[in-house]
Amino acid sequence: MNRMPFSKMTTRREMLRSSGTVAGGALLARIFPASLLAGAARPMAYPQQAGAAPAADPLAATRAQMGATPLETVKLSDTLTMLSGPGGNVVVLNGPDGKVVVDSFVQTAWAKLKQSLDGMGNAPIRVLIDTHWHFDHTDNNSNFRAAGAQILAHENTKKRLSEPHDLLGMHFAPSPASALPTQTFTTATHRMQANGENLLLGYIPPAHTDTDIYIQYPRANVMHLGDTFFNGMYPFIDAGTGGSINGMIVAANRSLGMVDGSTKIVPGHGPLGDRAALTRYRDVLVTVRDRVQREKSAGKKVDEVVAAKPTAEFDATWGTGFMQPDVFVAIVYNTL
Ligand SMILES: [Zn+2]
């Protein structure tokens, strides 16, 4: 199995760190009490040069940085390809019925994404599926529309994209109509046939956000879990749109019940995974949740729990990705 080289993870981490000013006040104000901000934790502790000016537009800066990440390709089956790098992991189902694409990278990666899709053959881009509302997964919705695709998502994704949000220091205005899903579902599952696959899309009760869906490809035995699965790193959990640590654990357990030892599991971020990787991830989430819950139930304040470093044994591996350990612990605490 092809795995994304570790160097790629490092690149991504450095990219996120270099976007230091992205770690602005909005997310922090939303999920962190003042005591924590003033105290022990380093919220999204990106190193920042002393005296460095904040980016004028953190969203533009993040788009530029993510867009500069190389695009890597992993073949999943005769019809399925995973593309990684400039945002969440993209999966392309290609064949005579047209291309069915899950997630879309950031706007600044559109040219290389389009080039990659075009390189797979002349079939039109038929459908883009959004796993959830976050911009590193939906940022090219309007470009896909302009390329002729319909956009399919859960109704909550359309609702969240229609609202303004402040997240990780970035401001998101309501999406224009041209960037909204053209077809949504509110049922637990939604089926779609294309290129010999009988895709199963399923709503995930609030976990990473309240918009998450999974996409299952039964013939190829592939599953895309969106950002309910960060492979090998602490996950971001968006409490502002319904996410919680318990929701993440429920989602991971549910996903484990839908896969077997041969299933290729695409995470929202990180390298291609499998059942063993998803199990390790679930186990870390459960261990951290239980430790934080115990302390919170005993009356400990969030900064005390963060200072006790309940994730210490995992940090060398799991804390070097998207989320700093202190921030992850604070999110876990605040969503319990
Ligand atoms: Zn996300």
Characterize the structure shown.
The chain is of the alpha/beta class and 336 residues long. The protein has helices spanning 6-18, 25-31, 34-38, 58-67, 110-118, 135-138, 141-146, 155-161, 245-256, 275-297, 302-307, 312-318, 325-334, and strands at residues 72-75, 80-85, 87-93, 99-102, 125-129, 150-154, 165-167, 170-172, 183-185, 189-194, 197-203, 213-217, 222-224, 264-266. The strands form 3 sheets. Strands 1-2-3-4-5-6-9 form a 7-stranded mixed sheet. Strands 10-11-12-13-14 form a 5-stranded mixed sheet, with no helix packed on it. It has a two-stranded antiparallel sheet with strand order 7-8. Helix 9 (245-256) runs antiparallel to helix 10 (275-297). Residues 1-52 have low confidence and may be disordered. The site of zinc ion has 5 residues, from loops.
Secondary-structure blueprint of this entry?
Blueprint: H1 6-18, H2 25-31, H3 34-38, H4 58-67, E1 72-75, E2 80-85, E3 87-93, E4 99-102, H5 110-118, E5 125-129, H6 135-138, H7 141-146, E6 150-154, H8 155-161, E7 165-167, E8 170-172, E9 183-185, E10 189-194, E11 197-203, E12 213-217, E13 222-224, H9 245-256, E14 264-266, H10 275-297, H11 302-307, H12 312-318, H13 325-334
Helix pairs in contact: 9-10
This protein binds zinc ion.
Zinc ion is lined by residues 132, 134, 208, 227, 268.
